[in-house]
Amino acid sequence: MQENSSAADRLGDVLPELRRFARALCGSQAAGDAYAAATLEAILADPDEFGATPDPKRTLFEIFGSIWRSSGRSIDGIGEEGSAREAVMQERLSALTPQAREAVMQERLSALTPQAREAVLLRLLEDFSFGDIARIMKISTVEAEELVDIGMTELESEQRSRVLIIEDEPLIALDLSNIVEGLGHDVISIARTRNEAVEAVKDLRPDLILADVRLADGSSGIDAVDDILGAAQDDIPVIFITAYPQRLLTGERREPAFVITKPFDERKLRVLIDQALFFRMLPAPSA
């Protein structure tokens, strides 16, 4: 009983980190949590392997990796999970002319380098060594290094986007603004409260939102984002920045796809910005 309890504790410690990674990799909570749940089921089917490992996080990610590869690295999740995103995209694609549809699909395909993005997230978001990445992805260490290099090159080629920052701490807001602009994007506004955030997007829709969870006036960045997304005509990716990431990685309710810990690491924020922008929804077709 003691041994099983210890294994459960070790799993509980690292499972939120897998959810964070899987959501960022898939671009949605539904798909990411579906993969995390499948990984958990695989461990429960053979708990001895996980219980004996000296490195529970790496072992957890190795099991995830085998499931991820067996699914063909589908960002839409397992089974019906995550299918809503693709359904919306297909509906909007069908409204375009054949020439426009082909151009959009070619752009998506040319931008898609799944293994490189996976490797960069493992390296920068989860701090795995190249050796660990090789074990998780079942590739050589040299290939792991090459994939991270490719992924970093993709980071530098991300197209210019408009970003809204919701943050009440002036110094943190300044840091975020400098990082965003350093990546070649435009900061359309820095909002300190829920009301300011809602007002900021009335005239100019952002392509991405960076939001703190707790704001100075007692309002919530989560509520501000809900207000904005409720009024928007399409989905806007959001990265939540919080000192308590585990509270947003429980898998028990609706939670964000992209979460980063405060104080944040610039490299991790950079890769999450790239990943979030990669999963931008297609704009609704003109009437």
From TrEMBL:
Q: Please list the residues that carry the modification 4-aspartylphosphate.
A: D212
Signal peptide start-end: none
Q: Does the keyword Phosphoprotein apply?
A: yes
Q: Name one Pfam family in it.
A: PhyR_sigma-like
Domain Response regulatory intervals: 162-277
Q: Which SMART domains does this entry report, sorted A to Z?
A: REC
Q: Which InterPro entries match?
A: Bact_response_regulator, CheY-like_superfamily, PhyR_sigma2, PhyR_sigma4, RNA_pol_sigma_r3/r4-like, Sig_transdc_resp-reg_receiver, WH-like_DNA-bd_sf
| Biological process terms in GO annotation | phosphorelay signal transduction system
Keywords linked to the UniProt accession: Phosphoprotein
Give the protein name, as stated in the record.
Response regulator
